[in-house]
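Researcher: I've got a protein sequence and the SMILES for zinc ion. Could you write out the 3D structure of the bound complex as structure tokens? I'd like something to compare against our soaking experiments later this week.
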Amino acid sequence: MYPKSFKKLIDNFAALPSVGPKMAERLVLFLFKADNEKLSDFARSLEDFKKNLRHCKKCWNISEEEFCQICKDSSRDQKTICVVEDTLDVFAIEKTKKYTGLYHVLGGVLSPQKTVGSENLHFKDLDNRIEKEGILEVILAMNPTTEGDATALYINRTLKDKGVKITRLARGLATGADIEHADELTLSSSLANRREV
Ligand SMILES: [Zn+2]
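Model: Sure. Here is the predicted complex with zinc ion in place.
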């Protein structure tokens, strides 16, 4: 019943996380009503997005250059790495303004059902960074979930003999709640009260 081009755009929107078919319909209708200039700008931003963004060569954060803003900032503590599941966790922790070290984005967590294995995540790069950069502390900022725990345990095991201090965020975060959605105060206190594992 939808015109073809209308349907195509609805399908694309509906494929996005948290966007259901009803919401997709509404968004597409909104775009249909938007003026040409706005629409071109929207299309261009999508193109630029794909063209300009990539992963930081060092920490796997999102970046427009070879190395991300955080890795390039020499005023940050170069001896501490905070390991997170995803880029959204970097954004959340940066918002607290309480962390001044570097990051390492794993790109996911290990799943107990082994659908995501260690070879799919950026563990090897983390391993290499410890010695190469003379890292003194690794903060495990995994979400308090079964997968997060399994991932933290795995990293703890692989880095145990490297002589690096390994800490994990305090359990200020409710079980099941994730870093991405935690408020800044909770996240700040989880960071401040991190414990050695
Ligand atoms: Zn980086």
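Model: DSSP finds eight helices and seven strands in the chain. The mean pLDDT is 91.
Researcher: Great, I'll pass this along to the crystallography team.
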